[in-house]
Amino acid sequence: MVGVPERFVIIGGGPAGNVAATYAARLGAEVTVIERDVIGGAAHLWDCIPSKSMIATGGAMSFMRRSQGMGLEQEDPVIDTGGLTGRIDQIKANMRDNTTQLLESQNVRLIRGTGAFTSANSVEVTTAEGTETIEFDSALVSTGSQPRIPDWCHPDGERILTTRDCYPPTVFPDSVTVVGSGVTGVEFVHMFSSFGAKVTLVVSRQQVLPGKDPEVAAVLEQEFMDRGVKLLMGARAEAIERIDADGNPDPDGSQVIVRCDDGRSVTSSHAVLAIGSVPNTADIGLDRAGVEVNRWGYVDINHHCVTNVPHIYAAGDISGKLPLSSVASIQGRKVAEHVMGLHTRSHRHLDYDKAASAIFTEPEIADVGLAEAEAFASGRKIRVTKVPFSATAKAMINNDTRGFVKIISDPATGVILGGSIVGRHAAELISVIAVAVTAGLTVTDIVESILVHPALSEALAEAAE
Ligand SMILES: Cc1cc2nc3c(=O)[nH]c(=O)nc-3n(C[C@H](O)[C@H](O)[C@H](O)COP(=O)(O)OP(=O)(O)OC[C@H]3O[C@@H](n4cnc5c(N)ncnc54)[C@H](O)[C@@H]3O)c2cc1C
Ligand SMILES: NC(=O)c1ccc[n+]([C@@H]2O[C@H](COP(=O)([O-])OP(=O)(O)OC[C@H]3O[C@@H](n4cnc5c(N)ncnc54)[C@H](O)[C@@H]3O)[C@@H](O)[C@H]2O)c1
């Protein structure tokens, strides 16, 4: 197959779709990308990137509030909503334009429209100009996901918000109730509280970030409480509506009430739904192509991202694996290699258990590979070493000594199996452990690397000792 032009059609131009397109084009395929909303990806450019941009601005504000500790006079920052909107729009536009230019320079055909399979070898695209049918030899479905909206809530984009209405909201919240305490929920709590809003978090279980290391979740819960965030533990929201100053239902009211299943309720100026997302698998003709969807609406794939139809692939959020832009991109690359026959050469299989991820709160939280709790649950013998940043020169220089590095290794061989980092720049620092986990490096490999001084990475070397 290598070198033979392959008609490769991709529905959805997010990180999964556009990375598959660029690699396949580079390898000689004839590639068409069909994108409905935004080249670069709706979940990526309308959620991931703007949320991180807002969080970075909030981080700059909290840094200024701590300026006394840096030997500076205290500054009280003020939000410039117009400037913030402009900054986010500019970042999104730059990313969209860079991706578009890259694909066009590789002669990838970009079609602005909605795609749907009409058979196992054809897709129909509906554009502003009409419809077109495109035949393919292989296809990728990478249509992503969208915020989950339950039937008990009707977001109005003004005060009852999905995450996509928040970058920034039309009226900046004085107070906000965030519903859902997964990664999105805690990032939004951090974001709005760093902007000075009074925040309440509705937590359906007894711990924020269910599934994460309880020690890490506890650090975040404490940080939120120290900042005055109210945590409603063990409560599920079941109704959200706007009310007037007297507490009567009013679709134009300036307050929002969130009612929970245990009888508690919270009133604030805004409410944000952060209760997960749903895959975009409806109305794309998967049944006509013979592609099966599982009971949660995701498309099952094998380790090459192949669906039950051998020449049709699925990647990104729609595949029901780890819903991360980084994972979607690497899946896209693997798809392109498989389409062009490169999987017959020596290659590394995708291992989702070795994906690094980060939560952009303050302190930042990042982890990769085997978790301590997971190892104990399975009875696996591990060596855990933990070093606080407080002893590190760079943390003192930065005036921020919060957090720690934890490395998990095999006691017999020293091979690094995983790690977690809580603290400033955790999302950057975890890369060292991620490379070690993927490459099978040992603690000695880290200890014997000559790292920079003064740097937070010195805590990594200490934890590896
Ligand atoms: C609030 C939030 C924050 C996040 N932050 C991070 C983060 O910090 N780091 C991280 O790694 N991940 C993050 N994620 C996850 C990340 O955004 C997604 O995992 C990633 O964007 C998935 O990529 P994708 O290619 O599957 O989908 P998308 O990026 O959504 O791209 C799919 C594209 O398909 C298009 N499409 C859908 N149907 C059709 C159709 N019928 N025809 C044509 N086009 C169609 C859509 O318009 C969309 O542009 C975050 C998610 C959320 C909700
Ligand atoms: N920094 C990042 O990389 C980043 C940021 C955001 C999202 N993401 C990706 O998106 C994925 C999904 O995260 P998420 O947080 O959007 O969704 P999620 O499904 O992980 O979390 C949603 C939470 O809402 C709770 N919930 C559901 N209904 C509720 C109700 N009625 N009342 C109160 N709580 C309710 C659920 O129990 C759950 O804990 C993550 O696993 C991650 O892969 C990544």
From TrEMBL:
It comes from Ilumatobacter coccineus (strain NBRC 103263 / KCTC 29153 / YM16-304). The keyword Oxidoreductase applies. PANTHER family: MERCURIC REDUCTASE, NAD(P)H DEHYDROGENASE (QUINONE). Keywords: FAD, Flavoprotein, NAD, Nucleotide-binding, Oxidoreductase. Residues 356-464 form the Pyridine nucleotide-disulphide oxidoreductase dimerisation domain. NAD(+) binds at G180, S181, G182, V183, T184, G185, V186, E187, G276. Its EC number is 1.6.5.-. FAD binds at K52, G115, T143, G144, S145, D317. Its cofactor is FAD. Gene3D superfamilies: 3.30.390.30, FAD/NAD(P)-binding domain (3.50.50.60). This is Putative NAD(P)H quinone reductase. It comes from the Bacteria. Belongs to the class-I pyridine nucleotide-disulfide oxidoreductase family. Residues 8-332 form the FAD/NAD(P)-binding domain. The active site is at H453. GO terms for molecular function: flavin adenine dinucleotide binding; NAD(P)H dehydrogenase (quinone) activity. Pfam families: Pyr_redox_2, Pyr_redox_dim. Binds 1 FAD per subunit.
